[in-house]
Amino acid sequence: MSSSPAGGPASARPAPRSEPSFTIDGSRQFSTWLAEQRISLAFTTYQAGKVFFVGSQPSGRIGVFERTFNRAMGLCGNEQTIWLSTAFQIWRFENVLETGATDGDFDRLYVPRGCHVTGDIDVHDIGLNPEGQPVFVNTLFSCLATVSDKYSFEPVWQPRWISKLAAEDRCHLNGLALEDGRPKYVTACSQTDIVDGWRDQRTDGGAVVDIDSNEVIAQGFSMPHSPRLYGGKLWVLDSGRGQFGFVDLASGKFQEVAFLPGYPRGLTFVGDYAVIGVSKPRHEKTFTGLPLDAELARRQASAQCGLFVVDLRSGDIVHWLRAEGSIAELYDVAVLSGVRRPKALGFQTDEIRHNIWFPNQGRVQQWRGVEPPP
Question: Which segments within 15-149 are labelled E, that is strand?
Answer without folding.
Answer: 22-26, 39-45, 50-56, 62-68, 75-77, 81-85, 89-95, 108-117, 123-128, 134-138, 143-146
